[in-house]
Every structure is written in C-alpha cells, then in structure tokens.
Design brief:
alpha+beta, UbiD C-terminal domain-like, 9-stranded antiparallel beta sheet
Length: 489
C-alpha cells in the first residue's frame, strides 16, 4: 500500500515492531547523531536496528524521526513493495521494444503507456495540511526545527533530508533533489548543490539571466516521494511522475504560498524562499558518507521568506557517515530499480551490484555474457559514458555465471582471473564532487578490472586455452543431497 504521509507510515512501522520511541530529552548537538549511528550500525541476527522517533528534542517542539528507511524491509514497506526487484521488473516490462502484434499486442502496448499517463502528480486547490500554519517575515525562525550537528568537526547544524524543489528558468522543468542544508541563522541556509546536480544548472541559468531562483524545501514527505528525490533520474523525467509510478497512485501537490512552485500536500514542514544571483555562504565542514569531512566551500545562500507546517508537525532527518547507514537501503533500491534502464543503454550487461561500502558510485561489479575479445573493456567504456554512472571509479567485470552480489565469489574471480599487467584499464574522468581521494576536484583516475575468462584472441594461449572451472559431478551431488537429507546432516 502507499502511505499518504510520513505519520501514517510511522504508525505502520510501530505496529510492525519496526519503530522505537525515545521519550527522554535528547540533544541535536552530537547526541542524536551518536544514538542514530549506533542503532543503524547494530545488527541482531543480521537485522538492522529500528526506526527512531525522538519525542523530546532539546530546543524544538517537533518530534524527530530518524533511521526510517534503515532496512530493506522498511523501505519495501514505504514503497508498497514485496521486494526491491519488483519495480525493476515493472520498468523492464515498459521498456520492451517489441512491436505489437494483433489486437492483444496493441492492448498490451496501450496498457503500458497508460501506466505512466495515469500517475502524474495532481494539484490540490484551496490549501493543504502542510499549510495549516503559515509563518512569514520576522515570524520565520529556522531554530524551531531540529537541525543536527552530527559529528564533532561539523561546521554547524544541518538539515539532511530536505527535499529541494526548483525549476529551470527557461524550460520550466521541475527538479526534486536531496541536498544537505546548513542552517546559518534564523532565516538563512546554504544549499549544498554539487556540480553534477540539476538544481545547480537551474541556479546557473538564473544567474546568467540576472534573475533570482525560487526554491521550496519540503520535510517529512510521503515516503515514496522521499525515495524519488534520491533517484538519479534524467533531467527531463519528473520525480513526481516516478513516485506515482512506484505507488500506482498520483501524488498530491499544493501551490506554495510565496514562490511559484508546488510541494507535497501532506508533507510536514515547508521552507519557501529565493536565491539571489551570486549570494553565497561558506558551507561545511561536514562529516559525509565517504567517512571523511568535506571541506568548506561557498554555496548559494537561501533567504527563507515563508515557513508552513502541519498542526502538531513532526520532522525527519538522516545521519550520514561511514557505512552502514540509512543510505544503504536507499542506494540498493536505486540499483535494483535502474537495472532495466542500464541494460537498455548497455545490453551487454546481465546484472550489476553497487556496493554500499563504495558509496554506490565508487565501485560497480558487472556481469556479462562475454562474446568477443576485449568485451569487458567495451562495457567499461560504456558505463563511464552512462549518466551518473560516469562517476564510477572502479569497474569489475565478471562472467555471467558469477553472482555479482556474492562478494566472496566476485573476489575469487578478481583475485584469480586477472593478469594485472594485461587485464587492467586505467583512465581518467569525472568523479563525485565529494571525492577526497582525487588529486584535484571533480576529476581523477578510473580503473577497470577484467575478471572474465580470457579468450585465445586476447592473447591467452597457454595450455590450450582457459581452463574449465571445477564443479561437482551432477549425479554424485544429487546422490549426496539425498543422503544428506536422509541422515539429517
């Protein structure tokens, strides 16, 4: 089922034993971060720790929800799925390129198109729950909200789960993104917009035109919307359309009070304001998902002109840092959802895995049905040219009989199937804005590892060709299976 708002989802989590309430007072300065980080790294029989609802946050009247998406089970609940592969299968069905044959074929094609046409966002008129309370001018006070100072050397307090809305000044295309936001004072926040993000382009166009850019930031959104904001969608695909596709239901939006944008009608808190051309504030340091502090840089400074919220509003945030964190299930969902799209761009790919320990962009493990010499290298180049996959630093290519999600199996292939003088591809290209290992910002070294079995045409000629892998004799294995079961071993 789809949850219309955060609070209904939290009730469902509590009913399922997936939510823990914390009633004692907690300090947003370091303490909330310490508690949350411990919980999200705790594993009991392999199960991550629960979602948390801090009911008494020092300095704020708003309850604070944390670690809400911190397990695959909770994320599947949030998106109304039985498994994360379910959406990938639906996307794959939409992307099948076969021409329709006969009446049933045309009905099937029309049905696929209808899946998308029926789920665009819809505008709610006459106000919405997120506008029960409206604060303007001097009444706006960001200190009312529980911003987190998570790590000791952070440069201040941050909002880490604000869904930022902008639109292209010329095309009018909307973008919904998730960026950290540093609170500087009661009405000013710095927008950490990385160079490869769509909102950065919107702001650059506005500056070129000498115009200010309207911005709306929504907190405590319906769960499917919060996930959609993290998805690396192409610039011309509306995140709200994608959210509607996931939940099979249109997302309700409402016009903002002071900027020409729309936000989820059932979110908890909204900040509205304008970015003036060239106005920046120093942002950072910030303890990031890389496990290191990102340095201070100038970023656009948003002046908040209007704050709206629900009656008895609540807030939501996340703690990022060295994995595992709440980012893990969100990143794994994106990996599974976008496999069909990646295979459409690069049909050679059978499956792929983006390890959480690599931040989901530093490493990609890819399996292929190898058909010709240097096939693995061809796939590496294709990945480095595919959207945000271009930021991948390490690509390991294995044969299709290797389970890319079994890291022990992948390691065995990469350690044993590689001549490191001939099977590596070293190059340079774009890297993530937050990458600290590159010797200069935004670009650095890339490595491809060909861990596939080698062909004679690739220069492998010893002992008559690549050896056969050891596998059990099928008849003997079946015999032992029967006896194993018979004797209860």
């Amino acid at each position: 089922m789809a949850y219309e708002d955060l609070r209904s989802f939290l009730k469902a989590l509590e009913k399922e034993g997936e939510l823990r309430r914390v009633s004692v007072e907690v300090d947003p300065y370091l303490e909330v971060g310490e508690i949350t980080d411990r919980v999200q790294k705790t594993r009991v029989n392999g199960v991550p720790g629960p979602a948390l609802l801090f009911e008494n946050v020092k300095g704020s009247k708003l309850p604070l929800a944390m670690n809400v998406f911190g397990s695959e089970r909770r994320l599947c609940m949030a998106l109304g799925l039985d498994s994360l592969d379910e959406i990938g299968e639906r996307i794959a069905g939409l992307l099948k390129p076969e021409l329709p044959h006969g009446l049933s074929g045309f009905k099937d094609a029309l049905g696929k198109a209808a899946q998308l046409r029926s789920v665009p966002p819809k505008r709610v008129k006459g106000g919405a729950p997120c506008q029960d309370v409206v604060l303007t001018g001097d009444a706006v006070n960001l200190d009312l909200l529980p911003a987190l100072h998570t790590w000791p050397q952070d440069g201040g307090s941050f909002f880490n789960l604000g869904l930022t809305h902008t639109k292209h000044p010329e095309t009018g295309l909307r973008n919904l993104g998730l960026y950290r936001l540093q609170r500087h004072d009661e009405r000013t926040i710095a927008m950490h917009w990385q160079i490869h993000k769509d909102s950065t382009n919107h702001y650059a166009v506005a500056q070129r035109r000498g115009e200010r850019l309207p911005v709306a930031i929504a907190f405590g959104c319906p769960p499917v919307v919060s996930y959609a904001a993290t998805a690396p969608l192409p610039a011309d695909i509306d995140e709200y359309l994608f959210a509607g596709f996931i939940q099979r239901e249109r997302v309700e939006l409402v016009d903002c009070k002071s900027v020409p944008l729309q936000v989820p009608a059932n979110c908890e808190v909204v900040l509205e304001g304008w970015l003036e051309p060239g106005v920046t504030r120093p942002e950072g340091p910030f303890g990031d998902h890389t496990g290191f502090y990102t340095p201070v840089e100038p970023f656009p400074a948003l002046t908040v002109t209007t704050m709206t919220m629900r009656k008895n509003a609540m807030f939501q945030s996340i703690v990022v840092g060295r994995p595992p964190t709440e980012d893990g299930p969100l990143g794994k969902a994106t990996e599974r959802f976008f496999l069909p799209l990646l295979k459409m761009i690069i049909p050679d790919i059978v499956d792929y895995d983006l390890p959480e320990t690599g931040g989901f962009h530093n490493c990609a493990i890819v399996s292929i049905d190898k058909r010709f010499p240097k096939h693995a290298q061809k796939v590496m180049h294709a990945i480095w040219g595919a959207g945000l996959m271009s930021l991948t630093k390490l690509i390991v290519v294995v044969d299709s009989d290797c389970d890319v999600h079994d890291y022990a199996e992948v390691s065995w292939r990469a350690f044993g199937n590689v001549d490191y003088a001939r099977d590596l591809l070293l190059t340079e290209g774009a890297v993530d804005h937050l990458d600290h290992a590159s010797y200069q910002q935004f670009w650095g070294g890339k490595l491809g590892v060909d861990a596939t079995g080698k062909l004679p045409e690739e220069g492998y000629t010893r002992n008559g060709g690549w050896p056969e892998m050891i596998v059990s004799d099928p008849a003997t294995a079946a015999k032992v299976d029967r006896r194993w079961k018979e004797y209860g071993l």
